[in-house]
Amino acid sequence: MRKNRKYDGTFKEMVVKEYLSGQHGGYITVAKIYDVKNVSQLKKLVKKYHEDPTSLHRETRGRKKVCSKSDKTKEEFLQEQIDYLKMENTILKKWVELIKENN
Question: What integer is the mean pLDDT of 75-89?
């Protein structure tokens, strides 16, 4: 069983630009020259490049990094707490109103 290859962003961009230049022909030829195992992978890279050229440099595989409290600035953390407490306060006010209506 072979392992999946991981291409870096500069390699991806180079291969896509080589295909788009049209010097070597189609997908199959460019894939053989640069040893890209699957032609459909090259097609996906070209499509991503047309949508957003910078997307080739972003890693999209695997789980997303969960933002911890230490990654946030103190202001962001405090603002989140304020927003949460405001929401909680609003809910409690509505709950009290409902209790008064039922009694």
Answer: 94
In this prediction the pTM is 0.53
Look up residue 61 and give its DSSP letter.
S
* Domain definitions of the chain by residue range: 9-57, 69-102
CA distances from 98 to 34, 45, 94, 95 (A): 68, 56, 6, 5
Runs of H (alpha helix) within the chain? 9-21, 27-33, 39-51, 74-102
**CB-side neighbour CA atoms (13 Å) of 3:** 3
Residue pLDDT, tens place only, 9-48: 888 888 898 889 888 778 899 888 888 888 898 898 888 8
